[in-house]
Amino acid sequence: MVYKIENNEGVITFTIDRAEKRNAVNDEVMEGFKEVITYIKGNKDVRFLVITGAGDQAFCSGGDLSEFHQLKTEEQAFGMLSKMGNILYDLATLHVPTIALINGAAVGGGCEIATACDFRLVASRVKCGFIQGTLSITSGWGGGTYLFERGLPHDRALKMLIDSKKYNAKLLYEIGWATSIFEGPKEQALEEFIGDMRKIHPDVHQAYKGIELRKWKESNIYERVMEEIRLCAKLWESDAHNEAVNRFLNKSK
Ligand SMILES: CC[C@@H](C(=O)O)C(=O)SCCNC(=O)CCNC(=O)[C@H](O)C(C)(C)COP(=O)(O)OP(=O)(O)OC[C@H]1O[C@@H](n2cnc3c(N)ncnc32)[C@H](O)[C@@H]1OP(=O)(O)O
């Protein structure tokens, strides 16, 4: 199994469990995301969704480049990107608060998953970044659209996308991407973060999320996400992208 789903008194934790691949997302992980989202939509007792990665090296390293590198054409890429894009849309529009518990690097699509969550708790030693530009593609799962919705100053958000670098935790907090930075065990950081929220009735949480979701729907967020995905799919079939992925996959050979 490449993922784990745990329920601790209404706090659902979804762990991507592929530490040896730095928790890269493949088709099986996508199925796990679908399973946990379906469960939450059908279960009234759920209070929070927490997403994290196994081990301490990575939260998520994005799409599994060794598996998805087989997709060569724009159309093939669009199939994979829109599948995960729809999953992230469902995640971003869930009725319960969502928390990315970032225990290790979050890069590429991993940074998109974290950005689709309401809150990002980042371990102090960790770096995160929209590094897709270094692969000659843009964000392809809708993460760019969510980043512009997260209230960061426009110049910080745009720079994060176009310089395509990994930022340390301090900088992630300064620009407004990280909600908080933690030292020590991630479980303790999570408990501290949700302690006060737990005391509030879940209907209140859901009402506030509803306010944000209505605004998003009025501004056609789904269409904007799909447009972002189409742009990435176009770039995916370029020689520059192919060469960059080959370089990554052959780096240790
Ligand atoms: C497809 C969607 C697109 C999007 O919409 O955004 C993307 O997500 S594109 C993918 C972007 N991601 C990357 O480019 C990831 C690059 N990975 C890294 O930069 C690093 O691995 C890391 C996450 C910073 C961790 O570094 P480190 O701890 O030094 O580990 P290694 O680099 O040695 O990796 C260990 C092991 O894992 C494999 N790996 C890592 N990331 C991926 C990945 N995304 N897909 C497939 N495999 C990955 C890496 O190849 C190593 O494997 P072995 O050599 O077999 O041990």
TrEMBL record:
Cellular location(s): Cytoplasm, Cytosol
Enzyme Commission number, as recorded? 4.1.1.94
| Enzyme kind, highest EC tier | lyase
Q: Does the keyword Heme apply?
A: no
Going by the UniProt record, its keywords in alphabetical order are: Cytoplasm, Lyase
Question: Gene3D superfamilies, alphabetically?
Answer: 2-enoyl-CoA Hydratase, Chain A, domain 1
Reaction equation(s) it catalyzes: (2R)-ethylmalonyl-CoA + H(+) = butanoyl-CoA + CO2; (2S)-ethylmalonyl-CoA + H(+) = butanoyl-CoA + CO2; (S)-methylmalonyl-CoA + H(+) = propanoyl-CoA + CO2
Q: What family is reported?
A: Belongs to the enoyl-CoA hydratase/isomerase family.
Its name, as the record gives it, is Ethylmalonyl-CoA decarboxylase
